[in-house]
Specification:
alpha+beta; three-stranded antiparallel beta sheet; 20% helix
Amino acid sequence: EKIHAGKDMVLHDMATNTFTVGSDECRKKLGWADSGELKKGPKDIPENYRLYVQSTSYNRAIPGDTHVLFAVDPATYAQHQKTTTIPSESEPSAKAKAK
């Protein structure tokens, strides 16, 4: 895949669950050229890393088994954020229900 110089990148280190943000920082961490267009494929990404490259397409076809990272505003994030329910003191505990 061609990665143009102006594309933003995020590198996910899955072993430590840390992210490197920015094209310059990702290129440096991966040992790639500082600037210019790159031709890279899946074999160029080290094991336990996942590279996200900015898409400038508005109608990109996304193949199956593809990981996607996208930005959302805080209100949208809050709307879809997973939550857990903590029982109140007035509710019987799961232990009491099981008896």
